[in-house]
Design brief:
The chain is α/β, with parallel strands linked by helices. The protein is built from twelve helices and nine strands. The protein has two domains: 146 residues, Aspartate/ornithine carbamoyltransferase (Rossmann fold); 151 residues, Aspartate/ornithine carbamoyltransferase (Rossmann fold). Helix 1 crosses helix 5. Bound molecules: phosphoric acid mono(formamide)ester and norvaline.
Protein backbone atom coordinates (compact mmCIF):
# COMPACT_ATOMS: atom_id res chain seq x y z
CA UNK A 1 0.00 0.00 0.00
CA UNK A 2 2.90 2.37 0.75
CA UNK A 3 5.26 3.62 -1.90
CA UNK A 4 8.30 5.82 -1.28
CA UNK A 5 10.57 4.79 -4.17
CA UNK A 6 8.97 7.34 -6.50
CA UNK A 7 9.59 10.40 -4.31
CA UNK A 8 13.30 11.09 -4.80
CA UNK A 9 13.98 14.37 -6.59
CA UNK A 10 10.30 15.39 -6.71
CA UNK A 11 8.86 18.78 -5.77
CA UNK A 12 6.34 19.04 -2.93
CA UNK A 13 3.97 21.76 -4.15
CA UNK A 14 0.49 20.30 -3.55
CA UNK A 15 -0.77 17.02 -2.09
CA UNK A 16 -2.69 16.44 -5.31
CA UNK A 17 0.64 15.78 -7.08
CA UNK A 18 1.01 12.53 -5.10
CA UNK A 19 -0.71 9.14 -5.09
CA UNK A 20 -2.48 7.71 -2.03
CA UNK A 21 0.34 5.18 -1.57
CA UNK A 22 2.98 7.93 -1.71
CA UNK A 23 1.12 9.96 0.94
CA UNK A 24 0.81 6.87 3.17
CA UNK A 25 4.49 6.15 2.50
CA UNK A 26 5.51 9.59 3.76
CA UNK A 27 3.31 9.16 6.86
CA UNK A 28 4.84 5.75 7.58
CA UNK A 29 8.33 7.21 7.26
CA UNK A 30 7.32 10.10 9.55
CA UNK A 31 6.17 7.66 12.26
CA UNK A 32 9.45 5.75 11.95
CA UNK A 33 11.61 8.90 12.12
CA UNK A 34 9.55 10.27 15.02
CA UNK A 35 10.16 7.05 16.98
CA UNK A 36 13.92 7.39 16.37
CA UNK A 37 13.86 11.03 17.49
CA UNK A 38 11.88 10.20 20.65
CA UNK A 39 14.46 7.53 21.54
CA UNK A 40 17.30 9.97 20.76
CA UNK A 41 18.68 7.61 18.11
CA UNK A 42 20.69 9.61 15.55
CA UNK A 43 19.31 9.48 12.00
CA UNK A 44 21.64 11.58 9.83
CA UNK A 45 20.03 10.70 6.48
CA UNK A 46 20.86 14.13 5.03
CA UNK A 47 24.43 14.54 6.25
CA UNK A 48 26.11 17.35 4.34
CA UNK A 49 22.89 18.48 2.62
CA UNK A 50 21.57 22.02 2.73
CA UNK A 51 18.04 23.42 2.47
CA UNK A 52 17.48 27.06 1.49
CA UNK A 53 14.33 28.49 3.11
CA UNK A 54 12.84 31.58 1.46
CA UNK A 55 10.20 33.46 3.43
CA UNK A 56 8.05 36.18 1.85
CA UNK A 57 5.60 36.00 4.82
CA UNK A 58 5.99 35.62 8.60
CA UNK A 59 6.42 32.22 10.24
CA UNK A 60 7.06 30.58 13.60
CA UNK A 61 6.32 26.86 13.11
CA UNK A 62 7.39 26.43 9.48
CA UNK A 63 10.71 28.15 9.92
CA UNK A 64 11.69 26.43 13.17
CA UNK A 65 10.43 22.95 12.22
CA UNK A 66 12.18 22.89 8.84
CA UNK A 67 15.40 24.28 10.30
CA UNK A 68 15.46 21.89 13.28
CA UNK A 69 14.39 19.04 11.00
CA UNK A 70 17.40 19.57 8.72
CA UNK A 71 19.72 19.72 11.77
CA UNK A 72 18.30 16.48 13.20
CA UNK A 73 18.80 14.83 9.79
CA UNK A 74 22.47 15.81 9.86
CA UNK A 75 22.16 18.64 7.36
CA UNK A 76 21.60 22.37 7.66
CA UNK A 77 19.13 25.04 6.65
CA UNK A 78 19.66 28.63 5.57
CA UNK A 79 16.95 31.16 6.45
CA UNK A 80 16.46 33.71 3.69
CA UNK A 81 14.05 36.60 4.12
CA UNK A 82 12.98 37.77 0.67
CA UNK A 83 13.40 41.36 1.90
CA UNK A 84 17.11 40.77 2.35
CA UNK A 85 17.53 38.92 -0.94
CA UNK A 86 17.98 40.41 -4.40
CA UNK A 87 14.55 38.80 -5.01
CA UNK A 88 13.17 41.67 -2.93
CA UNK A 89 14.84 44.16 -5.30
CA UNK A 90 13.39 42.62 -8.43
CA UNK A 91 15.70 39.71 -9.33
CA UNK A 92 13.55 37.13 -11.09
CA UNK A 93 12.30 34.00 -9.36
CA UNK A 94 13.74 31.81 -12.13
CA UNK A 95 17.23 33.34 -11.89
CA UNK A 96 17.06 32.89 -8.12
CA UNK A 97 16.07 29.23 -8.61
CA UNK A 98 18.95 28.55 -11.00
CA UNK A 99 21.52 30.22 -8.75
CA UNK A 100 20.34 28.39 -5.59
CA UNK A 101 20.37 25.08 -7.51
CA UNK A 102 24.15 25.42 -7.68
CA UNK A 103 24.55 25.85 -3.93
CA UNK A 104 21.93 23.85 -2.05
CA UNK A 105 20.09 20.50 -2.27
CA UNK A 106 16.53 21.76 -1.84
CA UNK A 107 14.47 24.94 -1.55
CA UNK A 108 11.55 25.54 0.79
CA UNK A 109 9.54 28.67 0.06
CA UNK A 110 6.64 30.50 1.70
CA UNK A 111 5.15 32.95 -0.77
CA UNK A 112 1.94 34.60 -1.98
CA UNK A 113 0.78 33.53 -5.47
CA UNK A 114 0.90 29.77 -6.09
CA UNK A 115 2.25 30.57 -9.58
CA UNK A 116 5.44 31.84 -7.92
CA UNK A 117 6.28 28.43 -6.48
CA UNK A 118 5.39 26.73 -9.77
CA UNK A 119 7.80 29.06 -11.60
CA UNK A 120 10.50 28.43 -8.98
CA UNK A 121 10.06 24.66 -9.24
CA UNK A 122 10.17 24.76 -13.02
CA UNK A 123 13.45 26.71 -13.07
CA UNK A 124 15.16 24.83 -10.19
CA UNK A 125 17.12 21.59 -10.70
CA UNK A 126 16.48 20.57 -7.09
CA UNK A 127 13.33 19.72 -5.11
CA UNK A 128 11.14 22.68 -4.15
CA UNK A 129 8.92 22.35 -1.06
CA UNK A 130 5.81 24.43 -0.40
CA UNK A 131 5.97 26.14 3.01
CA UNK A 132 2.58 27.83 2.25
CA UNK A 133 1.17 29.74 -0.69
CA UNK A 134 -2.14 31.59 -0.93
CA UNK A 135 -3.61 28.39 -2.44
CA UNK A 136 -2.04 25.45 -0.54
CA UNK A 137 -0.35 24.47 2.74
CA UNK A 138 0.56 20.81 2.08
CA UNK A 139 3.34 20.43 4.68
CA UNK A 140 0.88 21.47 7.39
CA UNK A 141 -1.73 18.99 6.22
CA UNK A 142 0.82 16.14 6.27
CA UNK A 143 1.29 16.99 9.98
CA UNK A 144 -2.50 17.04 10.42
CA UNK A 145 -2.86 13.61 8.77
CA UNK A 146 -0.04 12.26 10.94
CA UNK A 147 -1.76 13.54 14.09
CA UNK A 148 -5.09 11.96 13.10
CA UNK A 149 -3.40 8.66 12.17
CA UNK A 150 -1.55 8.50 15.50
CA UNK A 151 -4.68 9.33 17.49
CA UNK A 152 -7.33 7.34 15.64
CA UNK A 153 -5.11 4.54 14.31
CA UNK A 154 -6.48 5.02 10.78
CA UNK A 155 -7.56 7.64 8.25
CA UNK A 156 -9.75 5.57 5.94
CA UNK A 157 -13.43 6.12 6.60
CA UNK A 158 -13.10 9.05 9.02
CA UNK A 159 -15.21 12.18 8.61
CA UNK A 160 -13.55 15.59 8.78
CA UNK A 161 -15.44 18.87 9.09
CA UNK A 162 -13.84 22.12 7.95
CA UNK A 163 -15.51 25.31 9.16
CA UNK A 164 -14.71 28.85 8.02
CA UNK A 165 -12.53 30.25 5.27
CA UNK A 166 -11.95 28.10 2.17
CA UNK A 167 -8.29 29.11 2.16
CA UNK A 168 -4.91 27.41 1.62
CA UNK A 169 -5.55 25.08 4.58
CA UNK A 170 -9.01 24.14 3.32
CA UNK A 171 -7.66 23.33 -0.15
CA UNK A 172 -4.86 21.12 1.14
CA UNK A 173 -7.22 19.42 3.63
CA UNK A 174 -9.65 18.59 0.82
CA UNK A 175 -6.78 17.05 -1.19
CA UNK A 176 -5.38 15.23 1.85
CA UNK A 177 -8.76 13.81 2.85
CA UNK A 178 -9.52 12.59 -0.68
CA UNK A 179 -6.11 10.88 -0.94
CA UNK A 180 -6.44 9.02 2.36
CA UNK A 181 -10.01 7.74 2.17
CA UNK A 182 -11.50 10.32 4.50
CA UNK A 183 -14.54 12.42 3.72
CA UNK A 184 -14.55 16.15 4.32
CA UNK A 185 -17.61 18.32 4.80
CA UNK A 186 -16.84 22.02 4.46
CA UNK A 187 -19.07 24.86 5.65
CA UNK A 188 -17.86 28.23 4.38
CA UNK A 189 -19.74 31.51 3.84
CA UNK A 190 -20.93 32.29 0.31
CA UNK A 191 -18.00 33.38 -1.84
CA UNK A 192 -15.40 31.99 0.60
CA UNK A 193 -15.39 28.32 -0.41
CA UNK A 194 -12.35 26.18 -1.31
CA UNK A 195 -10.91 26.46 -4.84
CA UNK A 196 -13.40 24.98 -7.37
CA UNK A 197 -10.68 22.95 -9.16
CA UNK A 198 -9.63 21.37 -5.85
CA UNK A 199 -13.24 20.51 -4.98
CA UNK A 200 -13.84 19.06 -8.46
CA UNK A 201 -10.73 16.85 -8.24
CA UNK A 202 -11.77 15.49 -4.82
CA UNK A 203 -15.04 14.08 -6.22
CA UNK A 204 -17.26 12.31 -3.70
CA UNK A 205 -14.76 12.79 -0.86
CA UNK A 206 -15.87 16.40 -0.37
CA UNK A 207 -19.26 17.93 0.30
CA UNK A 208 -19.92 21.65 0.57
CA UNK A 209 -22.73 22.51 2.99
CA UNK A 210 -24.23 25.82 4.13
CA UNK A 211 -24.81 24.95 7.77
CA UNK A 212 -21.71 24.49 10.01
CA UNK A 213 -23.77 22.19 12.24
CA UNK A 214 -24.47 19.88 9.33
CA UNK A 215 -20.76 19.80 8.47
CA UNK A 216 -19.81 18.95 12.03
CA UNK A 217 -22.52 16.28 12.56
CA UNK A 218 -20.78 13.04 13.69
CA UNK A 219 -17.39 14.37 12.53
CA UNK A 220 -14.31 12.57 13.84
CA UNK A 221 -12.11 15.61 13.20
CA UNK A 222 -13.14 19.28 13.31
CA UNK A 223 -10.79 21.82 11.73
CA UNK A 224 -10.81 25.57 11.32
CA UNK A 225 -8.34 28.32 10.46
CA UNK A 226 -8.08 32.09 10.71
CA UNK A 227 -10.70 34.20 8.95
CA UNK A 228 -8.12 36.56 7.42
CA UNK A 229 -4.96 34.93 6.14
CA UNK A 230 -1.57 36.58 5.66
CA UNK A 231 -1.95 39.17 2.92
CA UNK A 232 -5.66 39.76 3.69
CA UNK A 233 -5.13 42.10 6.64
CA UNK A 234 -7.21 44.93 5.12
CA UNK A 235 -10.18 42.57 4.73
CA UNK A 236 -10.17 41.70 8.44
CA UNK A 237 -13.23 43.80 9.43
CA UNK A 238 -15.31 42.69 6.44
CA UNK A 239 -14.38 39.05 7.08
CA UNK A 240 -15.28 39.27 10.79
CA UNK A 241 -18.84 40.08 9.69
CA UNK A 242 -19.02 37.43 6.94
CA UNK A 243 -17.73 34.66 9.25
CA UNK A 244 -19.54 35.65 12.47
CA UNK A 245 -21.76 32.53 12.51
CA UNK A 246 -18.88 30.15 11.65
CA UNK A 247 -17.10 30.07 15.02
CA UNK A 248 -16.12 26.62 16.27
CA UNK A 249 -17.46 26.71 19.83
CA UNK A 250 -19.04 24.37 22.39
CA UNK A 251 -22.50 24.64 20.83
CA UNK A 252 -21.17 23.66 17.41
CA UNK A 253 -18.94 20.77 18.48
CA UNK A 254 -21.77 19.24 20.51
CA UNK A 255 -22.89 17.84 17.13
CA UNK A 256 -19.54 16.11 16.49
CA UNK A 257 -18.66 12.50 17.41
CA UNK A 258 -18.14 12.13 21.17
CA UNK A 259 -14.42 11.41 20.66
CA UNK A 260 -13.84 14.11 18.01
CA UNK A 261 -10.43 15.77 17.60
CA UNK A 262 -10.04 19.52 17.11
CA UNK A 263 -7.20 20.70 14.84
CA UNK A 264 -5.98 24.21 13.91
CA UNK A 265 -2.71 24.88 12.11
CA UNK A 266 -2.05 27.95 14.34
CA UNK A 267 -1.65 30.84 14.85
CA UNK A 268 -5.21 30.98 16.26
CA UNK A 269 -7.46 33.87 17.21
CA UNK A 270 -9.43 32.79 20.27
CA UNK A 271 -12.89 34.34 20.25
CA UNK A 272 -12.91 34.58 16.44
CA UNK A 273 -12.71 31.33 14.45
CA UNK A 274 -12.56 29.21 17.62
CA UNK A 275 -13.60 29.65 21.25
CA UNK A 276 -10.97 29.26 23.96
CA UNK A 277 -13.09 26.46 25.44
CA UNK A 278 -12.61 24.34 22.29
CA UNK A 279 -8.99 25.09 21.39
CA UNK A 280 -7.87 24.79 25.02
CA UNK A 281 -10.26 21.95 25.79
CA UNK A 282 -9.77 18.17 26.09
CA UNK A 283 -10.49 17.40 22.42
CA UNK A 284 -7.84 19.80 21.11
CA UNK A 285 -4.70 18.33 19.51
CA UNK A 286 -3.24 21.61 18.26
CA UNK A 287 0.10 21.25 20.03
CA UNK A 288 0.79 17.61 19.01
CA UNK A 289 -0.28 18.81 15.54
CA UNK A 290 2.29 21.63 15.66
CA UNK A 291 4.99 19.21 16.87
CA UNK A 292 4.17 16.84 14.04
CA UNK A 293 5.23 19.51 11.53
CA UNK A 294 8.77 18.51 12.50
CA UNK A 295 8.29 14.75 12.07
CA UNK A 296 6.21 14.91 8.87
CA UNK A 297 8.61 17.35 7.22
CA UNK A 298 11.67 15.28 8.15
CA UNK A 299 10.09 12.40 6.25
CA UNK A 300 9.39 14.67 3.26
CA UNK A 301 12.95 16.04 3.32
CA UNK A 302 14.52 12.60 3.63
CA UNK A 303 12.47 11.09 0.82
CA UNK A 304 12.76 14.00 -1.63
CA UNK A 305 16.35 15.12 -1.01
N1 LIG B 1 0.98 26.69 10.83
C1 LIG B 1 2.00 27.41 10.32
O1 LIG B 1 2.37 27.28 9.15
O2 LIG B 1 2.57 28.28 11.19
P1 LIG B 1 3.64 29.42 10.90
O3 LIG B 1 2.95 30.50 10.11
O4 LIG B 1 4.07 29.89 12.25
O5 LIG B 1 4.78 28.84 10.11
N1 LIG C 1 -4.38 30.44 6.35
C1 LIG C 1 -3.31 30.96 7.14
C2 LIG C 1 -2.39 29.87 7.58
C3 LIG C 1 -1.24 30.32 8.43
C4 LIG C 1 -0.30 29.21 8.79
C5 LIG C 1 -2.54 32.00 6.34
O1 LIG C 1 -2.32 31.78 5.14
O2 LIG C 1 -2.19 33.04 6.88
Amino acid sequence: MENIETLRGRDFLTLGDFSPSEIMGILGEALRIKALQKRRIPHPYLSGRTLAMIFEKSSTRTRVSFEVGMLQLGGQAIFLSSQDMQLGRGESISDTAKVLSGYVDGIMIRTFAHETIQELAEAADIPVINGLTDLHHPAQVMADLLTILETKGRLQGLKMAYIGDGNNMANSLVEGAALTGMTISAACPDGYGPAPEVVAAAGDAVSLVDDPREAVRNADVVVTDVWASMGQEEEQQMRMKAFASYQVNDALVSAAASDYMFLHCLPAHRGEEVSASVIDGPHSFVFPEAENRLHAQKAILKLLL
